[in-house]
Design brief:
Largest sheet: 8 strands, antiparallel, barrel
Shape: elongated
Distance between the termini: 13 Å
Order of helices and strands: HEEEHEEHEEE
Strand order of the largest sheet: 1-2-3-4-5-6-7-8
Structural class: mainly beta
Helix content: under 10%
Length: about 240
């Protein structure tokens, strides 16, 4: 009888841990449009706290590689830029909110085993790969991975995206997810505001370097796999003497 009382409450699936493996990408001054040729490796680990069968909170730690190049220029001043390409790594720590459009967490023949979902939140990004700023030689800075302005390597970001999850069994969930990160600065690609001088002379056009009014974005696409910790809560301590 005690076993039946505990089991009748149902099973709780509050905690999940998982990983994601996939690719990262970038859009900014050097690459104006999303390009699959700039995909590079990315991965993350996460913890998910299920508030209910539709909503979850997620802590996410991500690392990804970002690249971009002027090899295929978008304006007539590309030859004067002489920037080559940038190549760096980005780490991100974020807190995300997920909303599942279908209730797929309670196993029943009437339930769908999959759901599309929305994800969004706030995060902090840290980039690596640039040497310290040297204002005396801005042209050399572009082609030698030296900072072209005095900017901080850590910046706030707003992640937002969508995905689809599928329950393989009560413990394991497989998914695919795409996320975009809005940044609030213009130097993921080390290209932003026009330097004061270029070889002693001002540039002919401001867009010879970059558009300071357009901040950079980066993206991730990944396959996710998570494990759910199932528990069987008992509502109270059963005392058989009480009923004898």
């Amino acid at each position: 009888m005690a076993f039946l009382l505990c089991a009748s409450v149902g099973q709780a699936q509050i905690h999940e841990v998982g990983i994601s493996l996939g690719a990262s990408n970038y859009v900014g001054d050097l690459v104006q449009n999303y390009s699959f040729r700039n995909h590079r490796p990315a991965g993350s680990i996460f913890y998910r706290y299920n508030l209910n069968n539709y909503m979850s909170l997620r802590g996410n730690v991500m690392v990804g590689k970002l690249v971009g190049s002027d090899e295929r220029p978008y304006d007539a001043f590309a030859n004067a830029r002489n920037r080559g390409q940038f190549n760096n790594w980005v780490n991100e720590l974020s807190v995300l909110f997920e909303y599942n459009f279908y209730d797929f967490k309670f196993f029943d023949d009437r339930q769908l085993p999959w759901t599309p979902y929305f994800v969004g939140g706030i995060g902090m990004m840290l980039q690596h790969g640039y040497d310290s700023y040297r204002p005396s030689d801005p042209v050399r800075a572009y082609s030698h991975s030296i900072k072209t302005a005095e900017f901080k390597n850590y910046q706030p970001v707003i992640p937002v995206g969508f995905g689809v999850e599928y329950h393989i069994n009560p413990a394991w969930t497989l998914g695919i997810e795409w996320m975009a990160r809005k940044t609030f600065f213009d130097y993921l690609d080390n290209t932003g505001e026009v330097p004061p001088t270029v070889g002693g002379a001002a540039p002919r056009k401001s867009y010879q370097y970059g558009n300071p009014n357009h901040n950079d974005w980066y993206f991730t696409t990944g396959i996710t796999l998570s494990y759910t910790f199932w528990t069987i809560p008992c509502p109270y301590h059963f005392n058989p003497k009480k009923y004898l």
